[in-house]
Amino acid sequence: MIARINLWLLSATIALLPLLVPRGPAQSAPVDAVALLFILFCLGGLLGRGRPLHLPAKGPLALIMAASVVATVASLSLSDSLLSLLIEAYLVLLFLCVANDLADDRNAMRTVLTVWTVAALIWAAVYVGFYYHVLPEGLQQLLVENSKGGGYRVSGASKNPNLAASYMMTSFFVLLASPWPRRRPARLAAAGFLLLAGYVTGSNGALFGLIAGMAVLAVAACLRGSRTPRQHLQVVGAATVIGVAMLATGLVLVGIPQVGVSDVQAVAARERGGLLQGSLGRLDRSVSSRLTIWSNAWNGTGSRVLVGVGPDAAPKIPFGARTVGRGLHNDYLAFLIERGLLGLLGLLAFCAVMLRWSGRLLAAWPQEDAGGRWSTAGLAGAVVANLVLATNHESFHFRHVWVLFGLVWAASRLLLEQPAAVQDAASDPTTAPGELAHASR
Question: 424-440 in b/e burial notation, b at 16+ Cβ within 10 A?
Fold first, then answer.
């Protein structure tokens, strides 16, 4: 009974992930009421049944927490940092509960993937309907009032177009993993609709993340076909994304060559008035504003970078007679400046662990059982896409990203714990779907 309640609450949480307005105290949102109920029931169920509480990625998370506490002591804004720590503790707890609740239940995993896909298509209808002004007038006006910039970019009920874009980008990869829809034409139509919903948000970061995630899935498919050991997939994936993250951080520290800025301006000018005017058409303004923010924050931080200026305290960094006044729009740089070198090390370690889990998912062939055909590789693509998105947005405080992390660990554990016969069949590209479904029973 408790397990069923947990599944219903988790499904409701996932369905409401983009419902982030109206804002409540401590930046809470309507979805958090359901999410907190899920956390309470999940923890109560684990304790009541005497099940152990698994702590995925406990080393990197402990390192991040230690760095955050040290940075908070020396914070430029103690109240902002303490609130940030409270929110992060909630998100990590949500991650742990999702991971523990699904780690030994394949049916629940398939249900959750299906619920996410259905909910994402409904939210996509809201985004697309808002963009093309086909929603009922009352709902249209309500979304305009709760949109950043009065609706210039679609943000749905999140008041943040970049968050909305991240959600749609992640949902696209969840669709690739989901057992529903079963028929290929319906899946293609659903994928196209989610991509359209992501397009109307006008997010360049989500566009680049989508490209990176799809590229990783394509490479993984080729490596699976060549019978490359799954350890190679893990190494290739980890090296690729960590390399991208380090390159992005390096560019922030040493600056982007002028020729690169000129190229960006040329791309933006070429796309203005075209199909991608809402995203690439404003790329020059986006890059310019970020470079200014990053430069001001770096120069204003100075030697404080060793311990950090405090979680969520970057807007308070002094620069001349002013302060930076905005977030850093880059998770890797934000962790370095706000939590110091130890914080950045913790984040990179966490990314490496996520990529190790994702490597297992990429190495597994699509599976088919009584619940339908589903593929864990899609979840790995979502991880890569979000890690790339984090180079130009602070997305590690997005609720759906931590739910995704929980799904990835649970899916990885399900793969490890399935019978040896199923593992052998899943790793063999010559296995027929019917044979794999029989082996999984």
Answer: ebbeeeebeeeebbebb
DSSP assignment of 268-309:
HHHHTTSTTTTTGGGHHHHHHHHHHHHHHHHHHHGGGGGT-S
Q: Is 228 helix (H, G, I), strand (E, B) or coil?
A: coil
Is there a contact between 377 and 177 (Cβ–Cβ < 8 Å)? yes
The DSSP H or E segment spanning 258 is helix 258-271
**Helix 230-254, helix 331-363: angle, nearest 10:** 170
**How many Cα atoms are found within 13 Å in the side-chain-facing hemisphere of 335?**
31
- Whose CA is closest to 109, among 10, 18, 183? 10
Q: Rounded to whole angstroms, how far apart are CA atoms 428 and 225?
A: 9
Q: How far apart are CA 142 and CA 139, in angstroms?
A: 5
- What does the pLDDT look like over 129-155, one tens digit per residue? 999 999 999 999 888 877 765 556 889
DSSP state of 432: -
Class of residue 218 by CB neighbours under 10 A (exposed 0-12, middle 13-18, buried 19+): exposed
Residue pLDDT, tens place only, 350-399: 999 999 999 899 988 887 766 667 889 999 999 999 999 999 889 999 99
HSE value, Cβ hemisphere, 13 Å, CA-based, for 308: 33
- Rounded distance between C-alpha atoms, residue 260 and residue 187, angstroms: 38
Q: How far is 137 from 417, CA to CA, in rounded Å?
A: 51
In this structure, are residues 325 and 82 in contact, taking their beta carbons and an 8 Å threshold? no
> HSE on the CB side for 367, CA within 13 Å?
31
**Cross-strand partners of 318:** 323
**DSSP sequence for 115-132:** HHHHHHHHHHHHHHHHHT
Q: What is the pTM of this model?
A: 0.86
Q: Residues 6 or more apart from 336 whose CB is under 8 A from it?
A: 249, 305, 308, 343, 344
Cα-Cα end-to-end distance for the chain: 24
Kindly list the domain boundaries of the chain, sorted by start residue. 2-439
CA distance 9 to 42: 9
| Residue 112 burial (CB count, 10 A) | 25
**Alpha carbon distance 15, 39 (integer Å):** 16
Q: Write out the two tokens for 409.
A: 């660990």
Tokens of 345: 């090390």
